[in-house]
């Protein structure tokens, strides 16, 4: 119940799609998302100005993950949930192995204003938590018996957990805005993409194209989450809009903190949103090549697409009150019924 309450309070947009998944997959997905929430909230929970306090908490999570893999989970609800998930047989394998049949996709909305480039496949293949990393996990599972059915925790890449913790800690220790789009993208890949890889593992999916799509969708979701939180971050004097774009548009950090909406700010937000849209489009382009069951794990794309459309509708003003009210997604009931119905519709169709 604690995990469900945390996900409903802090991650409601994702809570909506997780409850649509088969019953046997909900516990693993909620445990993974609760871990993501716990590490994301470390910075907010540290009241002391001493950075060492936050470092101690991040190190606690590193030690906790190691203990979970070693079968010695600390007495913490999220760590205990992860231990149960990691050391239980693969629920997806029990229901039957996935086969490589196509899944449909229906891209949402007009794309006329978005500037997106082509996919650099070589860069996606080098992602730490992607196919190369997960292929190692397959061999570890196989050494314990039937591939994908054993109770070995190694079907979940420990590297993905490490990347999430490391990226969160680096952001905590250096709260300056990202220097450029590449730095922003790197943070999204180190957090949201890693979580996507772990969710694929929970669903028992080991597939190169699924990893590729997860990499793109994770970056799109991570960047969109930061855009969605622009006003909230500004209230805490944090900014995730790239320094070089702000400088070129003559937007100061104080402008961002004060919520001053200028044409320069709209231009910066448009460029950041276009990067997210490009990754979302690429994730959707790969839909027909994904194995059965993968489309459900990709349902975060629905919230990403809807937010980017809504942001464009208010001319890229991240402080727009209606945008924040309808697309904030911070707590239970914060998502409009149209979003909940859209998630159900995509889930029934096997699209995202």
Automatic annotation (TrEMBL):
Entry-linked InterPro entries: Isoprenoid_synthase_dom_sf, Squ/phyt_synthse
GO cellular component assignments: mitochondrial inner membrane
A GO BP annotation: mitochondrial respiratory chain complex I assembly
Keywords: Membrane, Mitochondrion, Mitochondrion inner membrane, Transit peptide
UniProt xrefs under SUPFAM superfamilies: Terpenoid synthases
Chief place of localization: mitochondrion
Pfam families, sorted: SQS_PSY
UniProt keyword Mitochondrion, yes or no: yes
Subcellular location: Mitochondrion inner membrane
PANTHER family (UniProt xref): NADH DEHYDROGENASE (UBIQUINONE) COMPLEX I, ASSEMBLY FACTOR 6, PTHR21181
Family: Belongs to the NDUFAF6 family.
Protein's recorded name: Phytoene synthase
